[in-house]
Amino acid sequence: MPDEEAVRLLAEHGRNELPEHRRPSLPLRAARRLADPRSILLLIAGLVTLVVLGEVPEGAAILAILAVNVVIGVSQEVRADQAVRALRTLTAPMAKVCRGASCAASRRPKWFPAT
Fold first, then answer.
1. What interhelical angle do 37-47 and 56-90 show, nearest 10?
2. Could you say which of 32, 36, 60, 113 has the lowest number of CB atoms within 10 Å?
């Protein structure tokens, strides 16, 4: 493929890469954990035990379990995101790129859809 056509296709289509998704903030991750039906059930059970039944130790224990569940879930999600980012940096695709009369192997070439 001639260099001029490669430049035109790159300008027209852009790089052929997956977009990087935006990572949610920690409060948003915690809110998603609390929106889980199991977490809602624990929250209701803890509040009913505390407020309606007046059982402070049991209600506090239920809410503490909920808090620990949220902390562990969010920390696992953050570590999983970090692992995915680390894997992306380790995988560097190779491609044979032919421009004009010469061909060369290239890491992270300027890819675009073939014609």
1. 160
2. 113
| 74-108 b/e (C-beta count within 10 Å ≥ 16 → b) | beebeeeeeeeeeeeeeeeeeeeeebeeeeeeeee
Q: Which amino acid is at 2?
A: P
Cβ 43 vs Cβ 63: under 8 Å: yes
pLDDT in tens, the chain (115 residues): 676 777 787 788 777 666 677 889 999 999 999 999 999 999 999 999 999 999 999 999 999 999 999 999 999 999 999 998 888 777 666 777 776 677 777 665 555 555 5
